Amino acid sequence: MDNEQLTTIKTWLGTGSINLFGLPFAGKDTVGIQLAQIFGGKFLSSGMILREHERENKEIRVLDRGFLVPSNDFREIVLPYFASQNLAGFPLFLSSIGRWDGEQYDVMAALEASSHIMKAALLLNVSENEIRNRWETAKNLGDRSEETRIDDRKIEVLETRINEFTKKTMPVVEFYKNQGLLIPISAHQTREAVLAETLKKLHAFAVGRSS
């Protein structure tokens, strides 16, 4: 993608935000971090925020079992990050922030209040079988940090996370689709191809929204 097209995306995005969704191991963090680097933004993952809080406070004990954190805890711990001074003036790239149906309203309100209005939601599509293959590969290679992703060691936890996504997060994805914000991306590709498709579709989306 040329610089002019990237500039079009950056101008459209401004200090707004893009929320990335998908099954575990779909590549949300990878794509989110890449986009943050390309567009000079900040990457935020609710999982990272909650795990840091868990280590410091020992109050949340569901993350290592694969279940979504209760919405009250999510609202209290995660949403205030949007208003952090170190995020002011930057676009945000979010890894599945607001995974439980109903939380999307609070996420959008908090983003708008902090001048990071949500501009789009990406859905990284990949099959459950491929997710299980990626989990097995990552486990064998030690591809994820033992400290930060202890929940990825057990297959039953992965299955719980898949089930949580299907039952609780897919309604959130449907909400963004109905709002005209959803951009589907095929994650059955190399990382380079996923990023290329993401940028291409973001550019088309930005042009459509700007016209």
Could you characterize what this model shows?
- With 211 residues, the chain is α/β, with parallel strands linked by helices.
- It has a single domain (14-201), classed as Rossmann fold, CATH 3.40.50.
- Helices cover 53% and strands 13% of the residues.
- The chain contains 8 helices and 5 strands, in the order αβαβααβαβααβα.
- The protein has helices at 3-13, 28-39, 46-57, 71-77, 103-113, 128-141, 155-178, 191-210, and strands at residues 17-22, 42-45, 92-95, 118-125, 182-186.
- α1 (3-13) packs across α8 and α2 (28-39) crosses α8.
- The longest helix is centred in the last third of the chain and has 24 residues, at 155-178.
- The protein is globular, with a radius of gyration of 17 Å.
Brief summary of the model shown:
The chain has 211 residues and is an alpha/beta fold. The chain has 8 helices and 5 strands, in the order αβαβααβαβααβα. The protein has a 5-stranded parallel β-sheet, sandwiched between helices.
